[in-house]
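so i finally got all the pieces together for this one. its two components total, 577 residues if u count the protein bits. some of the lines might not be protein, just check the labels. i wanna see the whole assembly predicted at once instead of chain by chain like last time, that was a mess tbh
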Amino acid sequence: MAEIIETSSSRARENRASAINESRATRWVLMALAFGFLAIFLLSPLVLVFAEAFKRGIEPYTEALVDRDTVAAIRLTLLVAAISVPLNLVFGVAAAWAIAKFEFKGKAFLITLIDLPFSVSPVISGLVYVLLFGASSVLGPWLKSYGIEILFAVPGIVLATVFVTFPFVARELIPLMQEQGTGDEEAALSLGANGWQAFWYVTLPNIKWGLLYGVLLCNARAMGEFGAVSVVSGHIRGLTNTMPLHVEILYNEYNAVGAFAVASLLAGLALVTLVLKTILEIRFGHAIAGSRGH
Amino acid sequence: MTTEPAQAGWRFKAPSVIPGFGLTLGFSLAYLTLIILIPLTGLVWRSASLGWTDFWAIATDRRTVKALEISFGTALIAAAVNVVFGTIVAWVLVRYRFPGRRVIDAMVDLPFALPTAVAGIALTTLYASKGWIGSLLAPLGIKVAYTPLGIVIALIFIGLPFVVRTVQPIIEEIDKEVEEAAATLGASRFQTITRILFPGLAPAIVTGFALAFARGVGEYGSVIFIAGNMPYVSEIAPLLIVIKLEEYNYAAATAIATIMLVISFVMLLVINLLQSWSRKRYG
C-alpha cells in the first residue's frame, strides 16, 4: 500500500516537474550556453594569467616579483589601500548611521550622491583631481609653495582611490542597518547605555559581517584601481607606480612574464576576495543585506 | 504628556531618542563634499568657463565625435550580449542543480574583483592572433585584438555580473505557483516563459542592461590594451581624455568629460523612465 502511494506520488511529482520545467533538451542547451559563455569569458582569462606568469618556469616568475620596482609597487598599493579603505570605512559607518537610524528630508538625494562615483568613468574620477590640484589650478601651485605635492604623488593616488571606492562600505551598510531598525539601540539606551556604548556593544555586533563584506569589496577595488590612479599618478617607477600601473608598464615593455607575474598576484587577490565573499554569503547570508546585486 | 501633531510645521528631521545624528550626518556631508562634490563641481565649473564656442568646437571635433560613438556603440552592443547570456546564466544558476553550482555562482563576480588592467592584458593575450582564442578565430578571418570587436569583448567581460546579479534575485523570487497555474491552464512551457515569466523579469533585465551599459561607457583599464587605440577606429572617449591631459589640453579633456557625464546622465534618466514604464506595464 505504502509502495503504491509512493510510486503514484513520485509519478505525480514527475508530471508536475515536467509542466513547470523545460524539457531535458532545452535544459541541456541552456546549460551548455551558460557554461560555454562563462568558460570563454571568465575562466579562460583567469587561467591565462597564471599560465603566462609561469610560462618560463618558477624562477623567472619569482625573479620578476623580487624586482625592486615591483616590490615598490606592491608596497605603494598596500599603503594606498591601508589609507583609503579605513577612510571609507569610517565614512560608510557614519553615513549608514545617519541614514538608517534617522528620518530626515533629502535622504534619497543623499543616497544618490553617495552612489555617484559608481556612475562616473574612472578616468573622470582622476581628471577632477588633476583639475583641482594641477599646475593650471589655483590650489595646486599654492600648496606647492608650502612644499605639499598632491598630483603625481602619493596623496593624489590616495584621493583618486578614495573617490572610486567611496560608496562600497556605505551601500553595503545602509540597507542592512535600515532593515535592522532602531529597536536594539533604543533598548540599550533605555537601559542606560550612552550613544557610544550602544554603537559598540549593540550596533557593531549586528553589522560586523556586513561591514566586513563591504570592506572586502572596497579593498579589492582599492588595490586594483587602474584608470583613476593612472591619470593622477604620473607613472614614476619605484615612486608613484601601483601594482596595476606596474602591470601596464611591464606589458608595454614586452616583458610578458613580468607583467603576468604581477598580474597573478592581483588575480590571486581577486580569488581570495571571491572565496571570502562566498564564505560570508553562505555562513552569514542573513546578516549581510544586499549580498546580491551591486 | 503631549503628542505633537504630525503637521507641526516643516521639520528637517523626525524626533528620535538615538544620539549622534548631528555628528554622523555632519561628518558624512563634509566628507562627501570634500571628496566628491567639490572635485565634480570643479569639473563642471571649468567646463562652463570654456565658453560656448570653444566647447562646441571641441564637442564637434571629428575625433571627439568618433571616440564618443565608439564608446557608446561598443558599450551598447556589449550590454545587449550580456542581457541575453546574463539572463541565461542567471536562469541556469537559480533553476538547475548541478555539481559545482556554488563555485560557478561565485565565479560570476570575477569581473568585479579582478583589476581591470589584469583583465585587459589577459584578454589581449587570449585574442591576439597567436593567442588561445585568437588563433582559432584567425583562420575564419575574424580579428578581435586591436579592433573595435576587442573593445566589445572587454566590455562583455566587465558588464556580465551587473546583468546576472540584478536578474538572479528576481528569478529566485518567482512564485512557482504562477508557472503551475499557467501550465494547468494549458500554456506550453515556451508560452509560460515568454508570456508569464519574461514580463516579470523585464524591469530587472532593463536595470542590468543600464548598469552594464553605464559601466561599459566609462571603462578604461580593460579596454585600452585590447583596443589598439587607433584614432577614429578604436579610440574610446576615456582614452581621448587621457591623451588630451597628456598634451596638457585641459580644456578639451574637461569638455569631453562633461559631454560623457551629460550623455550618461540623460541615458540613465531615459532608462529609469523606461523601467518605471515597464514596471507599470508588466508589474
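Chain B has 13 helices and no strands.
Chain B touches chain A through 98 residues (CB under 8 Å).
anyway lmk what u think
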